[in-house]
Amino acid sequence: MIHEVGAQEKITYGRNDRFKGGPVGGGRFWRDDDGRPTAKIGGPEEWRPSGMLVVHVGDTFTVGGQTWKVTEIGEEETSKAYLLCIRLS
Predict the structure, then answer these.
(1) How far is the C-alpha of 66 from the C-alpha of 26, rounded, in Å?
(2) What is the pLDDT of residues 39-62, one digit of tens each?
(3) Rounded distance between C-alpha atoms, residue 64 and residue 33, angstroms
(4) Residue 41 and residue 82: Cα distance in Å, rounded?
């Protein structure tokens, strides 16, 4: 799916096929040693060799030529954990 700049997406556990060049999915959500909400997300071939990124609020990631900024990580350490991101470019 192609998103307009400013579009928002939610990433939860599992696979999210709404990202152009995806899928992108949540693999783990927790609070790091500094108490910051943290997420490990899995993604497309372009993220190899690991295929996973660890992100915090304010971090950016690129998938399918689109750049996204993490704006919120919520309910970490629960089955309802999620990450909100907004498309920057």
Answers:
(1) 18
(2) 999 999 889 888 899 999 999 999
(3) 32
(4) 10
Question: Which residues on neighbouring strands pair with residue 24, listed in sequence order?
Answer: 16
Omega prior to 44 cis, within 30 of 0: no
pLDDT tens readout for residues 8-39: 999 999 888 788 888 899 999 999 999 999 99
User: Per-residue pLDDT for 1 more than 70?
Assistant: no
- Which of 1, 7, 27 minimizes the C-alpha distance to 87? 7
CA distance 63 to 32: 24
- The pTM (predicted TM-score) of the whole model is 0.92
